[in-house]
Amino acid sequence: xxxxxxxxxxxxxxxxxxxxxxxxxxxxxxxxxxxxxxxxxxxxxxxxxxxxxxxxxxxxxxxxxxxxxxxxxxxxxxxxxxxxxxxxxxxxxxxxxxxxxxxxxxxxxxxxxxxxxxxxxxxxxxxxxxxxxxxxxxxxxxxxxxxxxxxxxxxxxxxxxxxxxxxxxxxxxxxxxxxxxxxxxxxxxxxxxxxxxxxxxxxxxxxxxxxxxxxxxxxxxxxxxxxxxxxxxxxxxxxxxxxxxxxxxxxxxxxxxxxxxxxxxxxxxxxxxxxxxxxxxxxxxxxxxxxxxxxxx
Length: 297
Prior knowledge:
- The chain has 297 residues and is an alpha/beta fold.
- The chain has a single domain, classed as TIM Barrel (Alpha-Beta Barrel), CATH 3.20.20.
- 35% of the residues lie in helices and 13% in strands.
- The chain contains ten helices and eleven strands.
- The chain has helices spanning 57-69, 85-94, 114-128, 147-159, 173-181, 206-212, 233-241, 246-254, 269-276, 285-294, and strands at 8-9, 31-33, 39-41, 44-45, 74-76, 102-107, 135-138, 166-169, 191-194, 217-220, 260-263.
- The strands form two sheets. It has an eight-stranded parallel sheet. A three-stranded antiparallel sheet has the order 1-2-3, with no helix packed on it.
- Strand 9, helix 6 (206-212) and strand 10 (217-220) form a beta-alpha-beta unit.
- The longest helix is centred in the middle third of the chain and has 15 residues, at 114-128.
- The protein is globular.
- The two termini are 28 Å apart.
- Residues 1-27 have low confidence and may be disordered.
C-alpha cells in the first residue's frame, strides 16, 4: 500500500554552544512522519558499541545525555549490544526523562518466535527500566524466521501497549516484499540499514522501494566506518562553507530528503555536539553536487 508522504516536520532551532562544555536545550527538532500516524525524531543516537569498555562509562553516559539535551532524542539499542549492557546504560540515561525520548530496541532472530519475542521484549523493558518501547525491530531476518509469526507477535505486543510500533532492520528489497505479502506486514514503521556517503548501496533499489511504500529508512553508521569519511577533502570544503564540521555535513546529507532517520553513535560529548550541529544545517544544491562527485553512488 502507498504510505503517507513524509517530510521534514518543523525547523531546527539554532544550536548554540555546540563546541562548549554544556549542552544547550533544543526546543524543536526535525522529525520524520511514520506510517499510520505519528513521527520520530530525524536525528538520534546509536549504542552499538557502548557499554563495552571502549570509553569510560561516565563519558558515554554524558554523551547520551548531551545528545538528548541537544534534540537527538531518539535512542537506538538492542538486546545483543554488549549482551544487554547497552540497554542497561540507556535505562540509566532515560530514568526521569522517559517521555522526552523516542526509544528503539531490537530482538535477535534467534528469539523470533511468538514466545521468544514476548520474552525478549520483557527482558529489554526490564533492562531499560520502562514499560514500553516506541519502536521494536527485528534485528535481521535470519534463516528460518517465519515473518508471519514475527508480525503476529509484534502486533500482540502493540495491542498490549508494550510497544507503540514495530519495524525491521537489515531487510533488503526481497525481504520487504516478503514482509508486505504477510497480513499486517504493511504496518512496518521503519527499516534500519547501513547508509552513509561511503555506503550508498541502498539507493538504486531499497531506498526508492521504501519511499514508494511509505517506510522510513533509519540509517546506522551514517559517519561510515573508521575516520576515512571525515577526512575527505570534499566534505571538509562543504563544512568550511557552512562554518560547520565534517560530521555534521555527513549526517545532514543522510537527512536531506526528509525520509531518513539518522542514528550516529558516539561515546564522546564533544563528538555528540558536532553531530548535533546537523540539526541546523541545510545543504545546498551546490553542496549536494560536490558530495555526489566525491562519493559516487
